[in-house]
Amino acid sequence: MKLFRMAAVLAVLAGPAYAQMPNINLLQEGPGKTPEEKAADAERDKAYKETLKKIPDAKASNDPWGGMRSDPATKPAAPKASTASSAPKKKSGTTAN
Question: What is the predicted pLDDT for the residue at 8?
Answer without folding.
Answer: 87
